[in-house]
Design brief:
The complex is a heterodimer of chains A (299) and B (351). With 299 residues, chain A is an alpha/beta fold. Chain A is built from eleven helices and twelve strands. Chain A has one domain: Rossmann fold. Classes of the chains: A alpha/beta (299), B mainly alpha (351).
Chain lengths: 299, 351
């Protein structure tokens, strides 16, 4: 059976009635042969801490697509993510959100379009899961200071808590949760923003196998259903191979290779970038590439 | 079927019911405001000079327009000495507690407090400079106190930010450094003064409401009310800043602007209260902590509740300070520190 978080091609084989509408929408999108570009980085260079962290990088996030960024530590993956969100300003090049330069948009309108899931610092105040998730509705409030959550905000929070299987935990305090539960709460909050662009920094880091699958299925269904785009920074090459439509391979701030998983995940390329011998074969279930590092014990 | 039953289950869920709402905030604040009013009336009857209860209440109810049978002296004690002092205590307490709550949210640190961070000392240095160089011009005191508080705030903030961000311990250490540095400045300035003023200065430094200045009272009250409102109006942004600056930024908070507003307003609050009464310590620690403990971490309720609770706390503490060894008086800061320091140790162990 095909896992639901596998890539588009694999998924369309297993039609279910509930997906009929979304498939028809996809077909319609296919007819005009253009997926709208949601976020675009054009030849951006980012200097950070007195060194070039991202160099001359071009990337587009299109509706319905998941893009994965992989690469060795210090390749500039997280810096790229934070630049795309406007947190770090690029020194040259342009970032376009819905065709508009990012720096011309105000913070709240960016946050209504881009949601981020990143590893965060510890919480030092008691906050319930529901309060935490409602934080995702901030950018939608008409009054950012003394505003109160509307009924719609609560409905959205209920829905994303159900989606992330967190409903029963909604009254618990965030700092009482396990690492995996907290990660799901972060995901729920990002989904609560209803932003069409999801930037995820190691979203599966604290998750067990089953919750990894649930989370990525969630990202996949967001991309399919509400025509969102996702960018995922991850160390897990095989996870990227399974769910991403595009893979960017970064090294020293540059996108050295990009393309479909089949194009990028080749032994020569990976050996060149990661400087470790790898074996690439076909995944027994999905048929996509599977990467195994080969450790030479003698050296 | 499944969705409807689960949503019904959710409506009844405690998380949703316990959430802070406008209703809950208004009710809590109304109750606190009532308690504050009651405290103002009751505490004005308590003191080394016994005032007759019924005529005093009658005179208070008429806002000082009719003496209601009080003697000239009694009337003056009530309206010229006690009431101004109580109102100033309310302003000082409200200011410090509000500033403490805002610093704690902004710096993500339950231990942040104007006195412990050295911000009160910054304001104290400013006030001393005003006293020495512009002794006759009273309004220079809050202005220079504000400037001193602001400079101290920036110094602590800069010192506390390491490469790994500001940890609670690092922030407190930065506060200790700024506090001791400014203390030595204060000692230096004090030694230049004549011996008779040193004693009153030492009292003032510990937080003393006995020298209530008539002309500073309206300024202090205005700043307290205005500052508490201004910070409450940023409460939702502060809720997200409490989770981390990066989180807040991602979710749409203009972090730089909110931080600047909090620094300015909190410095104004600390400056005006220190100029009026010296450094009353631990109010900004005790009161916001109690507010969060009883009402939750949501700043939309905890900031206004801290403002009202702080006023209440200092009024009661000052009444204790002026009656416990009557006719002599303790500085109110000694009482607040007596309650605050043990709580600080308790919090330090939990952070």
């Amino acid at each position: 059976m095909t896992k639901s978080f596998s890539r588009k091609g694999a998924k369309e084989k297993s039609k279910s009635p509930s997906q009929a509408l979304s498939l028809r929408l996809c077909a319609f999108a296919g007819e005009i042969l253009v997926r709208a570009i949601l976020l675009e980085a054009r030849e951006i260079t980012v200097s950070y801490d007195h060194r070039i962290a991202v160099a001359d990088l071009t990337l587009t996030l299109k509706q319905g697509e998941i893009t994965a960024i992989i690469g060795p530590n210090g390749a500039g993956k997280s810096t790229l993510l934070r630049t795309l969100n406007g947190q770090i300003r690029q020194s040259s090049g342009a970032i376009l959100l819905d065709g508009q330069p990012l720096e011309r948009l105000n913070r709240r309108s960016i946050s209504r379009r881009i949601a981020v899931v990143a590893q965060e610092a510890e919480l030092r105040f008691p906050v319930t899961v529901l309060e935490f998730v409602l934080g995702g509705r901030f950018a939608w409030s008409t009054n950012t200071g003394w505003g109160w959550e509307t009924e719609r905000d609560l409905q959205v929070a209920d829905a994303v808590l159900r989606e992330t299987e967190m409903s029963e935990l909604s009254g618990r305090l965030m700092n009482e949760l396990s690492g995996g539960e907290r990660q799901r709460a972060l995901m729920a909050r990002a989904l609560a923003t209803e932003a069409p662009i999801l930037l995820l920094d190691e979203p599966t880091a604290n998750l067990d196998l089953s919750h990894q699958a649930t989370l990525l299925a969630l990202v996949r269904s967001r991309c399919d259903r509400s025509e969102a785009a996702a960018l995922v920074v991850t160390h897990d090459i095989n996870l990227a191979a399974q769910f991403a439509d595009h893979i960017f391979l970064m090294k020293n701030g540059r996108a050295v290779y990009s393309g479909t998983p089949e194009q990028v995940l080749q032994p020569e390329i990976l050996q060149d970038v990661f400087e470790v011998r790898v074996l690439v074969d076909a995944h027994p279930v999905t048929g996509g590439p599977r990467v195994t590092p080969v450790h030479d014990r003698r050296s | 079927m499944i969705t409807s039953s689960s949503s019904e289950m959710f409506v009844a869920s405690p998380a949703r019911q316990n959430r802070v709402t406008l209703r809950k905030t208004v009710i809590s604040c109304a109750l606190l405001a009532g308690a504050l009013l009651l405290a103002i009336v009751l505490m004005s009857l308590i003191g080394s000079e016994q005032l007759p209860v019924r005529p005093s209440l009658c005179a208070l109810a008429s806002f000082g327009t009719t003496p209601c049978g009080l003697t000239r002296d009694q009337f003056d004690i009530l309206f010229q000495i006690r009431l101004p002092r109580i109102l100033l205590a309310a302003a000082v307490g409200g200011s410090l507690a509000t500033a403490g709550a805002a610093y704690q949210a902004l710096l993500r640190n339950p231990l942040a407090e104007p006195y412990l961070l050295g911000i009160s000392n910054g304001a104290a240095v400013g006030t001393m400079i005003a006293l020495i160089y512009f002794g006759t011009i009273e309004w220079t005191r809050p202005v220079l106190a504000f400037t001193g508080a602001l400079l101290a705030t920036f110094a602590v903030y800069r010192l506390a930010r390491g490469r790994a961000g500001a940890t609670p311990e690092r922030l407190i250490l930065a506060g200790v450094i700024v506090t001791t540095f400014l203390s030595s400045v204060i000692v230096f300035v004090t030694t230049l003064m004549d011996a008779t003023r040193i004693r009153s200065f030492t009292f003032w430094l510990l937080g003393d409401l006995s020298g209530t200045s008539k002309s500073l009272l309206p300024i202090a009250i205005t700043i307290t009310v205005g500052g508490a409102l201004a910070l409450t109006l940023h409460a939702r942004s502060l809720n997200l800043l409490m989770l981390g600056e990066r989180d807040a930024f991602d979710l749409g908070v203009e972090v730089g602007r909110v931080r600047m507003v909090v620094f300015l307003v909190a410095s104004l609050l600390v400056g005006s209260s220190v100029a009026a009464s010296g450094s009353v310590g631990y109010v900004g620690l005790v009161v916001p902590h109690l507010a969060r403990l009883s009402l939750g971490s949501d700043n939309r309720i905890s900031i206004p509740a801290a403002a009202l609770g702080g006023a209440l706390f200092v009024i009661v503490a000052d009444t204790v300070a002026r009656t416990i060894i009557a006719p002599r008086e303790l500085p109110v800061g000694a009482i607040t520190a007596l309650i605050g320091a043990p709580l600080f140790i308790y919090l330090l162990k939990r952070v």
